Each structure stands twice: as C-alpha cells, then as structure tokens.
Amino acid sequence: MPRSASTNAVTAAVVRQKGGPFVIEKLRLEEPRADEVLVRIVATGMCHTDMVVRDQVYPVPQPIVLGHEGAGVVEKVGPSVVKVRPGDHVVLTFMSCGRCRMCAQGRPANCENFNAHNFSGARADGTGSLADEHGPIHDHFFGQSSFSTFAVANERNVVKVPKEAPLELLGPLGCGIQTGAGAVMNALKVGHGDSFAAFGAGAVGLSAVMAARAIGATTIIAVDVVPARLALARDVGATHAVDARKRDPIAAIREITGGGVQFSLETTAIPEVVRQAIDSLGVRGTCGIVGAAPPATEINIDVTEFMQMSKTVYGIIEGDSVPDIFIPTLIDLFLQGRFPFDKLTKMYPFEQINDAASDSEHGLTVKPIIRIGTI
Hints:
This protein is 27% helix and 27% strand.
C-alpha cells in the first residue's frame, strides 16, 4: 500500500496460517481507485471456497482476508464509476477483466484472467488495499475480501440490487447460490418438463433444485447422504430424494426416470460421485460439474457408453452467469416466493465466524451468513 494513500480503519477476519483460524483484527483499507467502489459490508455469506483457500487446497498467499459473498451499502465511488453511487445497495460477486475474448463475448465467468483477478491475493496488477502495522495483508479475494466491515471492489463486480430486498440475506447470491441456480438456468438450460438430478444437497445443489423447480422441470431428484438435507431438498422443490448411503443412486435415478435423467449436476467434487452423476444420465444427457476439486483431480468414465449414449460433460464456473443480469433475476424470483433461498441460511455475528465455518464443514448449516454491520 503506498504511504501516501489515504486509508479507512476497518475490522476484518484475517487468516494467517494454513487451516485458520479467522482472527478478527484492526486493519487499514486504502481509498478506492478511479474504477473502484468502497462498500460498507452488512453481511457476507460463507462459501466452501473460503474454507478450501483457508486450508491451502488452493494455494492463495497468506495472511489474507477472505470472504467473497458480500452485500452492503456503497460509501464512496471512484471518479470513473457510473454504475452505482453512494447509498446504493449492492451484492459483490466475482471479478473479471472485461477485456479478454471471453469477457468480450459476454462470458465473464470464463474470463481468461479469472485466477489473477480472484485468487492472487491482490489486484491483477499485484497491488493491494489492506495493511496492518507491519505491512500489507493480502486481499481482493474474488475482487472484494468481504469478511470485513468495509471492502474495496471494482465497478465490474458490484451489482446494484433493489432496496426492498433484505440486504443481509443477499450476499450468497454473489457466488454459491448463483453457481447452483445459474448452472441449471444458464449453462445446462434445463427446461419445462425436463428431468434433473442434483448430486449433493448443499447450498449449490439446493440452489439448483430451486432453480429447476422455478423453471418448470417436472422430475427433480436430490442425492445426498444427510437425511436433514434431503428433507430440505424436498421442501424447496425436489420431487424425489435419494439417500446414497442406503440406495445406489444410479439405479434409483434410472428407476425414477425410466432410463436416466436428461440433466445432472455434480457439486461435491468427489470423483466417485462425479462418475455417478455421469452414469445417471439418459441418452443425450448432460452432466454439469461445479464441485471445487483439488488441482489434478481426475475422473474415470466408460468411454464406450459415453459415446454410444451421446452424453455431454460440462464444466461450469459461477453458473455461466452475467451477474448484473442474473442476480437481480434471482432476487425477483425470491421476492415472488419462487426461489426461497432464505431457507438455506443461518445468520452468525461477526465474532462467531469460526463457529460458522465449523458448522458448515460439519453439515450443521447449509449456508452460513456472517452479519458484519447494519443497514
């Protein structure tokens, strides 16, 4: 951080070593640059990706402030920002460069510079915004680092949302819920009357179930090993629930559908489950993969069956979403009662952030939200 930069005092959760914990500390946050936005954070969802980065499954530099499902109120904007202004309610989402071939084609989730903008622990140019008394703290995780009372984001990764929506609930729409719902609506393009199976009934899988119901799929199957999550899946839209501890999910899905689903979504990143999601497909079926597996994870498939049944496997990032369009769509569906993602959430005060992480990892909470400030 340049010595001349003006700064704001913030309270943030810092991870200083592999495996955590999140330590709440006082830091200094640089003022937003010309194309940036200073956001007062109201609440931030906790995502599985926060934990895998904390644990260095993905090697992001430490010490770092994580958090990438922030929601808050715009405090300041840089002189070139036109999308939002102070007082606007916003959801923070992933960052993209806006200049590569994929961004130019309207596919920011496939940004060719995605890692530099989201996983480098800094802006893409290597600079940061946070520091303590000893020096810089890595930040700009997913372009935001929103486990903090304030965050600096780019104009590209802030999404203006209506003030009538409950801002404290909206952060998870920026990543996990957008990923599951977008996989169904944007990537797989599940349609009215189609059959769909979600492997894993966590936040992503359940968001996919809700999306499939919202767009009119008629056979919606949730597969998991936790009875409470399977019950929740039925509550939010699944027509069938398969406990993979008690029944072979491939056989169960073929029996339910008469041959296999048209679409499946794999959210667990467990290679054996990925294979099940592919094998559960019917002729010309498509499997989407969104689970965050460790680097170099491999899967095996039966090539002959894969070819003869003309199956497709689709790797999906962030639900193939254009956040400025898709997040407001999900909010509209929620306000209409057609996308009840609030049923997945539990609120935790900032000082209980480690409890939230533990509850998430032990399956006690589907989607923790860390309440950091007030509206």
